[in-house]
Amino acid sequence: MHKVLIPIDGSPESLAAVHHVLRLVGQGLRVRCVVVNVQESASLYELVTAHDPAVLQRVAEQAGRDLLKPAQQLLAAAGVACESEIVQTGEVAQALADAADRYSVDAIVMGAGASGLGDRVLGSVSLDLVRTAPMPVTVVRAVAG
Question: Does domain 2-140 match CATH 1.10.274.10?
Fold first, then answer.
């Protein structure tokens, strides 16, 4: 059985990665999945206005849970075992590489542009992982229409 990490940022591209894994499952691949959401570190403005870092942490945790939920539901409906993690950090690619190592995954399947930064840095995290990850990285594009 293979273990696959799927970064989830709430984008159509990240859900396309989930659908890609489910197509492989439909073709007979046996997998366990790890879905990971990386929350960016709080901005200086957020730190100053919140007055309580614990509040910011709880908000980020809830946002991560909300973003992971559709992927978890798709995988559960297909009977695919799934672990999940929400990481709070400033460096998305490194956080994903660390999670891949921590969970001893065999592969990463991610959406093109599933960077956690939206359209501002389209594909930079995907590119970083393709270049540096010690395991295969599959980059999936969302189908238009």
Answer: no
Residues whose CB is less than 8 angstroms from the CB of residue 110 and which lie 6 or more positions away in sequence, other chains included:
6, 7, 13, 14, 17, 96, 125, 126, 129, 137, 138, 139, 140
> What is the mean pLDDT of the segment spanning 121-132?
79
Residues ≥6 apart with Cβ < 8 Å to 44: none
CA end-to-end distance (rounded Å), the chain: 33
Distance from C-alpha of 67 to C-alpha of 51, rounded to nearest angstrom = 25
Strands 137-140 and 107-111: what pairing?
parallel
Q: Coil, helix or strand for 34?
A: strand
Segment 37-77, tens digit of pLDDT = 999 765 555 555 666 767 767 888 888 999 999 999 999 99
> Rounded CA gap, 38 and 99, in Å?
10
